[in-house]
Amino acid sequence: MSLPSFHMIDAAPQPVATFSHASEVDGWVFLTGQMPTWPGEPDRPLPEGIEAQTRRVMDNLLIVLDGMKLKLENVAQARVYITDFERDYAAMNQVYQSYFAEGKLPARTCIGVTGLAVGALVEIDMVARRQ
Question: In a designed cystine with 123, which of 33, 54, 58, 59 is the match (CB 3.0 to 4.6 A)?
Fold first, then answer.
C-alpha cells in the first residue's frame, strides 16, 4: 500500500479551510466536501436556494474530478450534508440525481446537520476509483 498523494486543483474554488481538494491512495480518490462557492470568486455571494446551491456544489465536484482525470462514472460513494433536511431533502435529491446516468448512482449517505461553512445549505464529498 502506497502513501497518499495530495492534490490542489487550480480551476476549483479556493478552499474555505485547511485541506486538499483531493487525496489519492492506491487508485482510490477522496474528494473533499465542496461548498456552493464560485471558482475564482471567493467573495461572491452563494447561490440562493437548495437547488442552485446543489448545482454549484456538483459543478465544483466535477471540476475536481476533471482535475484528477476522472468522471462521475468513477464515483463509488457520496456523502451529502444539508442544514434543513425536512425542507430541502427532496429538492436536493432531484438536482443531485440529474447529474448521474440512470441506474448509475453511487452509494450515498445523507445527513442533516446544524450548520455548514460559509453559511451553505449543502455540502457533498465523494470517493472515486480509478479503473
Answer: 33
Cα angle: 5, vertex 7, 11; to 5 degrees: 165
| HSE of 91, CA atoms in CB hemisphere, 13 A | 15
Joined together, the cell numbers standing for residue 106 give 453511487
Neighbours of 107 (CB within 10 A): 10
CATH 3.30.1330.40 assigned to 5-129: yes
Q: How many residues does the chain have?
A: 131
Q: Which residue has the cell 475536481?
A: 64
pLDDT in tens, 24-65: 999 999 999 999 999 999 899 999 999 999 999 999 999 999
- Per-residue pLDDT, averaged over 61-80, amounts to 98
Strand order in the sheet with 28-34: 5-7, 22-25, 28-34, 122-129, 75-82, 107-112
